[in-house]
Specification:
With 229 residues, the chain is mostly helical. The protein is built from 9 helices and 2 strands, in the order ααααββααααα. β1 and β2 form a beta hairpin. α2 packs antiparallel against α6. The longest helix has 36 residues. The two termini are 41 Å apart.
Length: 229
């Protein structure tokens, strides 16, 4: 019971990893609402746990060990995913940027601000269908973090049932942790949107920059590790 309790707490802590926060923040910045944030955290955690259970069942059943090369490739994939997520959000912000239009009315020239941003009702009405993306992101993160978790599980048991149950408890902790993080992140994003569109765009830009920066930092860190620095 002590080990299971520790596993649950580790799952909660695991949700606070920098790459997890960057990925979820980027997704939530596009559609800030309490309902969407809870769904994003839930589906991220489900995808994360599904991958861990799949990898764990293979490792425990056949007594395999995950090679360091596999872990490096998976981490690189997560880094590239963060860069893509941040770049995609930045591209959308650029397309929907506010700009000035001029026109003539009653013989006089007028200017007004205009944006191609979609209406909020359109963005949020398909939030359940869009949960497929956080599910896939969670699966990618689960694959990248599977090696460290498998080492921890194998250090305590080699029994398939006990090992998978430990992974499930860990996964439940990560699901709850990510849901709480999603709800927490959505509050300032929603608040910025209620104040002004410019502030909301600034918060979205910050999320985009953070995602790209974390992805690049991960790639540089891994490159230096390979080079022996």
């Amino acid at each position: 019971m002590t080990l299971l309790g520790v596993g649950f707490l580790l799952g909660l802590r695991h949700a606070l990893d920098t790459d997890h926060l960057a990925a979820v923040s980027t997704v939530l910045a596009e559609r800030p609402s309490l309902l969407a944030s809870g769904a994003v955290g839930l589906w991220w955690g489900i995808g994360h746990t599904m991958t861990l259970l799949l990898v764990g069942s293979v490792v425990l059943a056949w007594g395999l060990h995950i090679p360091a090369e596999f872990e490096m490739i998976a981490e690189s994939g997560v880094a590239l995913l963060l860069i893509i997520l941040g770049g995609t959000l930045a591209g959308r912000l650029y397309r929907e940027r506010w700009h000035v239009h001029s026109h003539h009315h009653d013989g006089e020239r007028h200017v007004h601000f205009h944006s191609h941003q979609q209406q909020a009702s359109h963005r949020h009405q398909h939030w359940m269908a869009e949960s497929i993306r956080p599910l896939c992101i969670g699966m990618a993160h689960g694959l990248a973090g599977s090696a460290a978790l498998m080492l921890m599980i194998l250090a305590t048991t080699t029994d398939v049932g006990s090992g998978l149950f430990s992974i499930l408890i860990f996964g439940i902790g990560s699901i709850l942790g990510m849901m709480m993080i999603g709800l927490t992140i959505s509050v300032p994003v929603m608040y910025s949107r209620s104040i002004s569109q410019r502030l909301f765009t600034g918060v979205q830009s910050l999320a985009s920059l953070a995602s790209v920066s974390v992805g690049l930092w991960m790639l540089i860190k891994m490159a230096r590790s390979v080079a022996g620095y």
